[in-house]
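agent> step 3/5: call structure_predict on target 'Malonate decarboxylase subunit alpha' (Azospirillum thermophilum).
agent> reason: downstream docking stage needs a structural representation; sequence fetched in step 2, passing through unchanged.
tool.input:
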Amino acid sequence: MKTEQRWDTLAADTRQRLEAAAAYIGAGKRVKAEDTVALLKAVIRSGDRVNIEGNNQKQADFLADCLNQVDPAEIHDLHMVQSCVPLASHLDMFERGIAKKLDFAFGGPQAGRVAKFIREGKIQLGAIHTYLELFGRYFLDLTPRVSLICAYEADREGNLYTGFNTEDTPVIAEATKFRQGIVIAQVNKIVDKLPRVDIPADWVDAVVESPKPFFIEPLFTRDPGLVTDNHVLLGMLALKGIYAEYKVKRINHGIGFLTSAIELILPTYGAELGLKGEVCTHMVLNPHPTMIPAIEAGWVDTIHCFGGELGMEEYVKARSDIFFTGPDGSLRSNRAFAQTAGHYALDMFIGGTLQIDEWGNSSTATANRVSGFGGAPNMGCDPKGRRHVTESWLKCGREVPHMADQIGNMPRGKRLVVQGAETFGEGRAPTFVEKLDAWQLAENAGLDLPPVMIYGDDVTHIVTEEGVAYLNRAPDMAARMAAIRAAAGYTEVGLKADPAETKRLREARIFMTPEDLGVDRNRANRDLLAARSMRDLVDISGGLYNPPARFRNW
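tool.output (status=ok):
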């Protein structure tokens, strides 16, 4: 006898959960703040896959705090799938036994604690993903059963306005709701009419007006006052040796003082090199305040943003020719679309790392600090699916020896993937190491593979105070490793460099010192910065930039 198959078990389960929560959900899907813990207990089951919107910046922090208040005897062993875990509350639930397994992309301020919990067995690590990789899995095998998101405002029907920091909200809400999951939103305010609708009400099951506005981290703000002469030197080397060499227009700048230095010397040193209109015209990055001088000087045509940046709201609104803004005038950031642009539409990624090994593999996941990768592996790779052509992409590909021979004499370009770093980092920890800490982390976490951020075969250039290593020009692995040693300075890797071999590399333009590039070390100082303080950035913006309080010293 044939047994009839049910095809609505997820929907039926969701109905049961929402029926259990019905007593707490009022008109307009509104839930009183004091009922939030009871709401979560009604809709979440032990072992569920749960997403708490933890972005680079905006956080569903009230909902995270409420989830930590449930009894671990009632709700436990949750599988957390979220792009970022930057709040203490995100990890508190692992300490309490509410959560057990974690799949994520970026650890940020909790990097040390994540590493500690992995060592102690408090976190069962699924994987450290890229953003796009994790978003893709939301729609396949890591779909959240319940998602806790955040927005600036909701109207009285439950529509959401995500505003300046949309970030991950659309991808989380869509993946969850269209797989019959439950979406709960915390908002700063419930209003009669929204500036625009970013998430429709029928994607949302409950709305909580938080007792206080959600937390936003100004993650991409760098104070020009902290840019050092060494940062300026690295910036000059990058501009002269790579930007000018390849005329790269479509770029992502990662987080860090190297890229901030580059942004701040575009209107000065970059102008001397005649690069205006030749580089940095189309960019994928958050609205970095250190981009203000270059934008004001007319360097930039387009910027698409992963998220917003606290204090840049009015500046972005006033520069709608540059940024993607909605009919209401505010920025519409979107991490999934920006990462897609970063993966396929860019010609160059430049960022930093905590460690680089002698083959050029790099990682921000060390034995004692698991910062995660964010979007770096998507932007810091050569996307094999790319089919459109730009000159800088072709030039980089032409310089790779024997590339065409590998695929039947078929020509192909290559993305520039640049790692820029001082040879010794924070606490005088060497950046260049013989073996990445990622190997030990893999052992601690029981991973099949060491968590590498960018694989060595994708890295085309390394910039240090020693010079620029053009790894894409190396004829073989031996020459490639020698170029890395030449860039590695007085680290354990750099001390193995052979001066005669380095000399041959310089003659072949595979490694070039500042002197080879015509970069005057004596000019590498803060005098080249177009803005030397946060106050300078405010003044250059015409008063539109409003730095967070912790960055104000006037």
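agent> step 4/5: record observation. The longest strand covers residues 146-155.
agent> proceeding.
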